[in-house]
Amino acid sequence: MNEQQINEQEPKKLDVTVLIKDFIHSFKRLWIAVILIIAASTALFYFRTTRSYSPRYVANATVAISLVNGGAYASRSTAEQMSAIFPYIVSSGALTDVVAQDLGTNGIPGTVTASDIKGTNLLTINVSAWHPETAYKVLKSVLKTMPDIAQSIIGQIEIDVVDESGVPKDTGKTAVVRGSLRKGLLIGIGAAFLLVTVRALLYRTIRSESELRSVLNVPYLGTLPNCKKKHRNKNTRTEINILTDHNRGEYVEAMRLIRTRLERKLDGKKILMVTSSVAGEGKSTVSANLAISMALKGKRVILVDCDLRNPSIGKIFNVIESCPGLASVLNGTAAVEDALVEVMNNAEPIGLKLMPGSDKASNSVEILSSDAMADLLEKLKDMADLVILDTPPSAVLVDAAMLVRHVDAIAYVIMSDYARRRYIIDGIEELTSGGAPLAGCILNGGQSNTSKGYYGYYGRYGHYGHYSGYGYRGYGYGYGYGYGSDRKSRGKKNTNE
Fold first, then answer.
1. What are the start and end residues of each CATH 3.30.70.1130 domain in the chain?
2. DSSP of 450-464
3. Residue 238 confidence (pLDDT) above 70
4. For the segment 91-149, what is each residue's pLDDT rounded down to a tens digit?
5. In sequence order, what DSSP letters do the residues of 45-97 get, joined into one string?
6. Has this prediction a pTM greater than 0.90?
7. Could you give the count of Cα atoms lying within 13 Å of 228 in the half-sphere of its Cβ?
8. CA distances from residue 13 to 8, 19, 25, 122, 421 in whole angstroms, order as listed
9. Fold that domain 57-170 belongs to in CATH
10. 331 with 364: CB under 8 angstroms?
């Protein structure tokens, strides 16, 4: 891709419709977390309130305030003034002294508050105390002494009791707890909404063919449908193998379409790289099935596992016997012919050979960039019609970039709703800047223009370690493959089939 294409890959304007779709999708992905956040917030406020709440009885009265020789407006204004100055009256000690003298105590044995009812001359007075009788006595004393206290501040007033609670019988705990639950619920909903919104804005992936075309502006090879198998036990493979798995017609047809488009892109060229942005996108499974599909059409195909940090091709084809791999060939400890495994179907070769990565190598970058790798690829080109290189993820490791100068085309696998768009763009840019043409992208388990569905998760990955020499820090990934095949060309039928 050129500089202009890279700059145009991210939309400059945030489409509201797209944002809503991303929000709904993020909510579907995080709905369990949303429920947990709301439940945790509500529970936290509930337990904090119930543990810290001290039961107090509240006596209250609603009174009408009237200014002597004043109209209705003056009465409303007086009620508002009383509500505003009441905290001052209480804190100044004026009310305390008068009420205490009236009750014959040293102070007010409770807490007094007041609030006005907007637009009226009504004032609500609340008195809370440890005992119900005390609360009611204080309330009656406040109502009795209030006119005398107010006279020196706002003038002579009259107080008419509209309603009063009498001696309180309830501590009000139920109302307090309900209020706490509402507060916790609202805060939890707000936190969950914020989480989903942040994910919708920042964790933007590619989920469909239309998104792939609009975001990346790169060639499109096809979409592989969702074909997840049940995982019966840890030794049972859960991936699709078009050579041995039946009733997978939709997947087989999708792979044939990708094969046809790739053949047109290659136009007789022989070395194809298959990679992805990060691990877990199913590139090795796609490489294996693409190699099988090409071989079934009559081509001589060699599939090479170039992931020397985390080899998986041998596991995919169930190569359980120890055999030399790519690293042994490049180190000169094994011949090319000894490292090639013939894939069989019903004891018959199908035209596919694979070079597994049976031996891991810590110096994978040096090995893949060596002259021995270039010589090996030249030799493999003479032995096959197509050489497929299954490489490590390009957005997190430099290994794939070391092979770019040797390949004729790149097939880039993108798992639907998996890698962030930024990783995908960086991975493609890293490869295409080396000069290799991008044959196109394969959307794995995504939604095409004609079909819907999501491809299965490929199992558990291990870890690509930190490679200090190039500054690529490891990401946690995994593998869990196991395809059936025969060991080399011995003619023994696989007992696992």
1. 57-170
2. S----PPP---EEEP
3. no
4. 667 777 788 888 888 878 888 888 877 777 788 888 888 888 888 888 888 888 877 77
5. HHHHHHHH----EEEEEEEEEEETT--HHHHHHHHHHHHHHHHHHHHHTHHHH
6. no
7. 14
8. 11, 11, 20, 54, 16
9. Alpha-Beta Plaits (3.30.70)
10. no
